């Protein structure tokens, strides 16, 4: 009986030791796999960073359009790097100090990229105004590409702040600077939309009074205006999305998007946007009454006198 009890205790001990060894081996395997993945991610970041560094150095030796090609290659490479960084953030595979350092590097890069793209948009806008009608569509193609990159940069900058916050770091100065920059771009995009929508309205009126040859030329002009307006609308729509994440008031811009594009989106049902729309419609109704009421009253009085 005593022997059987010892045998049972021994079996339980073996089972417990076996369980501990299995758990220890599993943790070692997991740690080894994690380290292996970390090495892969580190190698990827190092390789992409090296490519970006080489491309950046080549910018000093290149001018003209080729320089822009290299710059956009750098943008695309940095997008690849951010994909790897996003995986690291999700898994928290590195020490927080290392992750913070990587995100800080992204902050510097996206800030420089924003400045370059804004300057590039300004140059392209000047080129658009100076170009012949036949060349303007090609300029707009480059303009849209740069604007798309700028939208991506704003989204990346916003993500940088979210990553830092996840790592316990707050960059209030950087967030305020981004808010200021986005507000400026919102105003510029809004002004551009007002300008080109007015240009389209006046152009349609002029078309009625032109001969066939002038109408053909004017139709190309209208196509260019429509394209430019659609690009500006898309840019404003993207900026509004970024601005909403930065707690910037966007009701007036959402109202403008609805009025110009006519597209009904869920944003127009937001309280402040509805108030802006109702106020605008009320103002238009009052203006119509002020302008038309005297004429309508005279007409009514005239027809009343006939009967």
How would you portray this structure in words?
This protein is mainly α. 88% of the residues lie in helices and 0% in strands. The longest helix is centred in the first third of the chain and has 57 residues, at 2-58. The chain starts with a helix and ends with a helix.
Name a few traits of the molecule.
mainly alpha; 307 residues
Supply the helix-strand structural class.
mainly alpha
Order of helix and strand elements from N to C terminus: HHHHHHHH
Low-pLDDT parts are 14-18, 27-33
How would you sum up the major sheet?
none
The helix tally amounts to 8
Shape: globular
Give the end-to-end Cα distance, rounded to a whole number of Å: 127 Å
Question: Helix proportion of residues, in percent?
Answer: over 70%
- How many beta-strand runs? 0
Mean pLDDT: 78
For the CA atoms, what is the radius of gyration? 31 Å
Instruction: Note the beta-strand portion.
Output: under 5%
Short description:
With about 300 residues, this protein is mainly alpha-helical. It has helices at about 1-60, 65-90, 95-130, 135-165, 170-205, 210-245, 250-260, 270-305.
């Amino acid at each position: 009986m005593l022997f059987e009890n010892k045998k049972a205790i021994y079996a339980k001990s073996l089972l417990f030791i076996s369980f501990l060894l299995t758990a220890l081996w599993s943790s070692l395997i997991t740690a080894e796999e994690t380290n292996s993945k970390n090495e892969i991610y580190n190698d990827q970041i190092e390789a992409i960073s090296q490519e970006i560094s080489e491309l950046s150095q080549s910018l000093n030796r290149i001018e003209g359009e080729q320089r822009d090609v290299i710059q956009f290659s750098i943008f695309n490479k940095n997008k690849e790097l951010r994909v790897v960084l996003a995986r690291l953030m999700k898994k928290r595979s590195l020490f927080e100090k290392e992750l913070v350092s990587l995100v800080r590097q992204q902050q510097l890069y996206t800030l420089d990229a924003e400045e370059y793209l804004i300057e590039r948009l300004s140059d392209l806008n000047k080129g658009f105004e100076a170009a012949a009608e036949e060349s303007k569509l090609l300029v707009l193609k480059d303009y849209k590409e740069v604007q798309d990159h700028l939208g991506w940069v704003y989204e990346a900058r916003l993500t940088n702040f979210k990553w830092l916050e996840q790592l316990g770091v707050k960059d209030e100065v950087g967030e305020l600077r981004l808010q200021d920059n986005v507000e400026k771009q919102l105003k510029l995009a809004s002004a551009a939309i007002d300008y080109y929508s007015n240009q389209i309205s006046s152009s349609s009126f002029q078309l009625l009074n032109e001969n066939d040859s002038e109408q053909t030329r004017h139709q190309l002009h209208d196509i260019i205006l429509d394209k430019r307006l659609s690009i500006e609308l898309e840019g404003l729509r993207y900026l509004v999305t970024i601005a909403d994440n930065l707690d910037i008031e966007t009701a007036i811009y959402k109202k403008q998007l609805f009025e110009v594009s006519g597209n009904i989106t869920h944003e127009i049902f937001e309280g402040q946007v509805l108030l802006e729309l109702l106020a605008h419609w009320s103002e238009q109704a009052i203006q119509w009454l002020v302008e038309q009421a005297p004429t309508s009253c005279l007409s009514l009085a005239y027809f009343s006198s006939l009967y």
